[in-house]
Amino acid sequence: MPVSEFSAAVLRAAAEEREVELTTYGRRTGAARRTTLWLSGDGRRLFVRSGRGLASDWARNVLARPEGVLHVGAHEVPVTLRHVDTTEARAVTDLVIGKYGAAIKRPEAGAPPTPGETATFELRPAD
User: Among positive and negative, which fits the CA dihedral 66, 67, 69, 72?
Assistant: First the structure.
């Protein structure tokens, strides 16, 4: 079954916006919670990560209930989120550096995953 893709307008907004908001749902209460995040992408896929790793409430909420709403530019897009493995998360680090600059450091080859790499998620449009 093919995976849905983001529209060109959403991808354009994602590339232009420095920060976006993501609504997730509480793992215990189910209450909607909106969090401001950095968003990076490769022109087709979009990723978010928590600099605090899996200690972040929103990341733990996503692990329990991998759905939300991406608020980017004028768009509100229902999404599902996939927790990526650490190898893929390391590759996403290059996308983060490309968008946000050299303040983000790429770990040395063979170094353990950073907190952000352990809490990296791919966003996909919900069907």
Answer: positive
Whether 44 is covered by a domain: the verdict is: yes
91 within 8 A of 16, measured Cβ to Cβ: no
Select from 41, 51, 31 the least CA-distant residue to 6: 41
Q: Which helix (H) or strand (E) holds 23?
A: strand 20-25
Specify the CATH number for the domain of residue 16. Answer: 2.30.110.10
Residues listed for the chain: 127
- From the first residue on, what is the mean pLDDT of each consecutive set of 10 residues in the chain (127 residues)? 79 94 96 95 94 94 97 97 94 87 82 92 94
Residue 100 domain-assigned?
yes
* DSSP labels, 65-110: S-EEEEEETTEEEEEEEEEPPHHHHHHHHHHHHHHH-TTSPPPPTT
Residue 71 region, left (φ>0) first, then alpha (ψ -120 to 50), else beta?
Answer: beta
